[in-house]
Automatic annotation (TrEMBL):
InterPro entries per record: PfkB_Carbo_kinase (IPR050306), PfkB_dom (IPR011611), Ribokinase-like (IPR029056)
Protein's recorded name: Fructokinase
This enzyme's EC code(s): 2.7.1.4
Similarity-based family: Belongs to the carbohydrate kinase PfkB family.
Classification via Gene3D superfamilies: 3.40.1190.20
GO molecular-function terms, A-Z: ATP binding; fructokinase activity
PANTHER family in UniProt: HEXOKINASE FAMILY MEMBER (PTHR43085), PSEUDOURIDINE KINASE-RELATED (PTHR43085:SF1)
TM ranges: none
Length: 342
């Protein structure tokens, strides 16, 4: 890292992100890279000049110590990361099969026992959220499904959701990144986690799981999106990633500027990655830019274009993260009404 990742003064003000879940080492045949979707998102947000609270756990081993060291160097707070004695830090063996990552995810590791951070950490982030709310800036709590595999994390995630999302005095949405990593997933968890979620990111297979039927065309997806938006009263936005075909965003009636319930989804293309090293972390990259735009109240379409563009750039990294600050220089200050070119 070559310079500070603390918020740059020209950046528009932003709400607060609380990111909960796994931190681990992605072990490729030739190198180890920091990973875990929530860590990747928190890392990217810090790179964009935001100050997320990352809630996770590492072991008191060399791998855990190195994670904490790297987070501090990057300007990412470790206040929400527990160090658990006698437990191993998370690791994943990553291989590429026809260019697609295959993950062998070790079970029973430190991030399977994430405690709720202590009162003073929770109170100080709540204070920041209140201040953001007073300025009209939304905040957000992000989680996925991998960390949800352990019963104790289920409790932590629900406690954090209740603690932050049920506070009437603050504007905070839950961002649920379904991000299935089979076999560490149970479709029944969707029934636990969809109610209360405001923004949901999912791919086409995950959307079929959620809809309870195979969705094979864009009109199928559109019909399913309307059903889901009707079914879940908190749901404002379904973000569907379509791989090389880009992404689409279905908004609830109240979130659409037109206010017309049956509006078409906003669709954006994905620039072809150049170079293409591996797609590990591309979905996390997309989520990160969407979150940064949301926390800054930026309009949806240009944010989505920035998001697919950044996801393509991450495909040019080995693994999901970089420690070069220049990699994270996205101009969120460019005229928000000007849609960036594809
Ligand atoms: O979180 C599970 C896995 O998914 C990734 O985040 C990529 O999206 C990897 O870094 C990690 O091994």
């Amino acid at each position: 890292m070559t310079d500070s990742s603390i918020a740059r003064s020209q950046d528009p003000p932003a709400g607060v992100a609380i990111i909960v879940g796994e931190v681990l080492w992605d072990c490729f045949p030739d190198r180890q890279v920091l990973g875990g979707a929530p860590l990747n998102v928190a890392w990217n947000l810090a790179g964009f000049g935001l100050l997320p609270l990352f809630v996770s756990a590492v072991g008191d081993d060399d791998l855990g110590t190195e994670i904490l060291r790297r987070m501090r160097l990057w300007g990412l707070s470790t206040d929400g990361v527990a160090v658990l004695p006698g437990v191993s830090t998370g690791t994943v063996a990553v291989t590429l099969l026809n260019g697609e990552p295959q993950y062998e995810i070790v079970r029973g590791v430190a991030y399977d026992q994430i405690p709720v951070p202590n009162e003073s950490v929770l109170e100080s982030v709540k204070q920041r959220i209140r201040e953001a709310t007073q300025q009209g800036l939304p905040s957000l709590l992000y989680h996925g499904t991998l960390a949800y595999r352990s019963p104790s994390n289920r409790e932590t995630i629900h406690r954090l959701r209740d603690h932050f999302a049920d506070d009437e005095a603050t504007q905070l949405d839950v961002f649920f990144d379904i991000n299935v990593r089979k076999p560490h997933y149970d479709v029944a968890w969707l029934d636990d986690l969809m109610p209360g979620a405001g923004l949901v990111k999912l791919n086409e297979d995950e959307m079929s799981d959620l809809a309870g039927r195979k969705l094979s065309s864009s009109s199928d997806r559109r019909a399913a999106a309307r059903e889901l938006l009707d079914k879940y009263s908190n749901l404002k936005c379904l973000l569907v990633t379509l791989g090389a075909d880009g992404a689409e965003c279905h908004l609830s009636e109240s979130s659409q500027s037109s206010g017309v319930g049956d509006a078409k989804p906003i669709t954006v293309a994905a620039p072809e990655p150049d170079p293409l090293i591996d797609p590990v972390g591309a979905g996390d990259a997309f989520a990160s830019v969407v979150i940064a735009g949301h926390l800054r109240n930026l309009p949806v379409e240009p944010t989505l274009k920035r998001a697919t563009r950044f996801a393509s750039q991450v495909c040019g990294l080995p693994g999901a993260t970089s420690d070069e600050t220049s990699f994270y220089r996205i101009d969120f200050t460019e005229d928000p009404h000007r849609v960036p070119d594809d």
